[in-house]
């Protein structure tokens, strides 16, 4: 029994480390990630639970020239992020409210503070946001889509699939950044990847090795204590 408990504790520590060390990295090294590793990550991620095993995910993996074409299509569109039309789905509410407003502001202020960007430096804020569209210099950029005919349950399944990718990446010494910022630019992305009309662009994701020399990667978010959001019903 003691030996079994020790093994369980070790396994739990490995899994917990993969989960808790996952974060949105916003600066990557140029070191390439081989296709075999990417395939392994996606294969294990596809073990995510899925209602009646529908497996609603569709993934477009890009590197090099194709990834650059996505970048160019978005940055040359003339459509600023604040003017982009979220016409396929809406990630955020039209108006933020508590406690979500405070959390959102703390996240933004924390990141910009790490970068030395002041609250009135709008141009620098925009430039930082635009780094989404170069996948924060990661060597791999993924675009995720879902069939628009599916319902909300499939989107729940999709979230678990995305989490699996990020955790599996950490188990291999890689980092990620999930990026909803790509969603309103589906018109620019579709022709590059030949995405059919029946697929909604859910998000993008950068994948690669963290550049630990960059200040934006020193930023850490916190999490609300359990007492704020857990109820043990009795």
UniProtKB/TrEMBL annotation:
One Gene Ontology molecular-function label: oxidoreductase activity
This protein's UniProt keywords: Flavoprotein, FMN, Oxidoreductase
Protein name according to UniProt: Nitroreductase
InterPro entries: Nitroreductase (IPR029479), Nitroreductase-like (IPR000415)
Superkingdom field: Bacteria
UniProt similarity note: Belongs to the nitroreductase family.
Domain Nitroreductase: 19-209
UniProt keyword annotation of NADP present: no
UniProt organism field: Mesorhizobium tianshanense
Known cofactor(s): FMN
């Amino acid at each position: 029994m003691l030996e079994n408990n020790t093994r369980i504790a070790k396994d739990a520590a490995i899994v917990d480390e993969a989960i808790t060390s996952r974060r949105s990295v916003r600066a990557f090294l140029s070191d390439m990630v081989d296709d075999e590793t990417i395939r392994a990550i996606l294969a294990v991620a596809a073990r995510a639970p899925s209602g009646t095993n529908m497996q609603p995910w569709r993934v477009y993996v890009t590197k090099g020239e194709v990834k650059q074409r996505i970048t160019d299509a978005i940055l040359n569109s003339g459509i600023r992020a604040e003017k982009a039309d979220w016409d396929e789905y809406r990630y955020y509410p039209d108006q933020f409210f508590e406690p979500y407003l405070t959390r959102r502001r703390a996240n933004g202020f924390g990141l910009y503070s790490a970068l030395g960007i002041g609250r009135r430096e709008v141009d620098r804020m925009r430039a930082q946001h635009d780094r989404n569209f170069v996948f924060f210099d990661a060597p791999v950029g993924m675009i995720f889509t879902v069939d628009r005919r599916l319902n909300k349950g499939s989107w729940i399944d999709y979230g678990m699939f995305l989490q699996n990718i990020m955790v599996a990446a950490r188990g291999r010494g890689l980092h990620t950044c999930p990026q909803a910022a790509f969603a309103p630019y589906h018109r620019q992305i579709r022709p590059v990847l030949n995405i059919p009309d029946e697929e909604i662009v859910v998000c993008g994701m950068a994948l690669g090795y963290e550049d630990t020399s960059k200040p934006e990667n020193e930023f850490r978010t916190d999490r609300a204590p359990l007492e704020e959001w857990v109820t043990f019903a009795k």
